[in-house]
Amino acid sequence: MLTLFHHPLYASCRFVRLAFGEYGEELVLIEERPWARREEFLALNPAGTIPVLLAEGDQPVVGATVISEYLDETRGALKREKRLMAEDPIQRAEIRRLIDWYLVKADADVTRHLVRERALKPHMAGAEGGGSPDSAAIRAARANVRQHMKYTNWLAGTRDWLAGKRLSYADLAAAGALSVLDYLGEVEWHDFPAARDWYSRMKSRPSFRPILADRVRGLTPVSHYADLDF
């Protein structure tokens, strides 16, 4: 069985878990605190970042997009209409663009800061960057949430799925990011009906059940987090 080093509030890790779940692949999950820089973990990935997949032969595959490409090449090519990556090069480019949007841009604008300030700092030592939450960083991130939700609402309102006519890695990347914000209660879903309908469809998928079961020590999710009819 494959092993994934992850953290439950990292959007990139949730993206990978959803992708394997869509393909019916089970993962052994090891929660990793990358800020602790464990020697054993650094031996797998000297960069100290997550997610890291221990693939066949315990070979480390590092990074969410690299893992998704590995998954597509080793499993996805056999899935035909259930493949999470398109066959057409232009459609593939759009899927990759949206993966980057949600796992890089949205992370830099919003997700990373809210997770760090609200969820991680209380459990980090001072030498690791712990301490009191930075209210300015939280305000700046919250100011960016609506712009990303507006864009998601537009995508969901004009397409069957975010990148086109089929479920793809783009939907999983967006769901990974927005599920973290939803856990924290940072999304005003009633303002974005198309995004809400799309997210409700995502939450109803079997691959999403482990995500909805996630709990982080010291931080209870918003009351509707696991509710499929929210």
CATH class label of the largest domain? Mainly Alpha
Q: What's the quaternary structure here?
A: single chain
Q: Please identify the structural class as seen in this structure.
A: alpha+beta
Kindly give the count of domains: 2
The strand count comes to 4
Please tally the helical runs, counting DSSP H or I stretches of 4 or more residues.
8
Low-confidence stretches: none
The CATH topology label of the largest domain is Glutathione S-transferase Yfyf (Class Pi), Chain A, domain 2
The SSE order reads: EHEHEEHHHHHH
What is the mean predicted local confidence, pLDDT?
95
Give the strand content.
Answer: 5-15%
**What is the CATH architecture annotation of the largest domain?**
Up-down Bundle
Taking the sheet with the most strands, its summary is: 4 strands, mixed
The global form is globular
Summarize the amount of helix as a percent range: 40-55%
Domain GST N-terminal: 1-79
Domain GST C-terminal: 88-222
Subunit structure: Homodimer.
InterPro entries: Glutathione-S-Trfase_C-like, Glutathione-S-Trfase_C_sf, Glutathione_S-Trfase, Glutathione_S-Trfase_N, GST_C, Thioredoxin-like_sf
Describe this structure in words.
By secondary structure, this protein is of the alpha+beta class. It has two domains: 81 residues, 3-Layer(aba) Sandwich (Glutaredoxin), CATH 3.40.30.10; 124 residues, Glutathione S-transferase Yfyf (Class Pi), Chain A, domain 2 (Up-down Bundle). Helix content is 50%, strand content 7%. The chain is built from eight helices and four strands; from the N terminus they run βαβαββαααααα. The protein has a four-stranded mixed beta sheet. α1 runs parallel beside α3, α4 packs parallel to α6 and α5 packs across α7. The N and C termini lie far apart (35 Å). The model has no long low-confidence stretch (mean pLDDT 95). Keywords: Transferase. InterPro entries: Glutathione-S-Trfase_C-like, Glutathione-S-Trfase_C_sf, Glutathione_S-Trfase, Glutathione_S-Trfase_N, GST_C, Thioredoxin-like_sf. One of its GO terms (molecular function) is glutathione transferase activity. It holds the Pfam family GST_N_2.
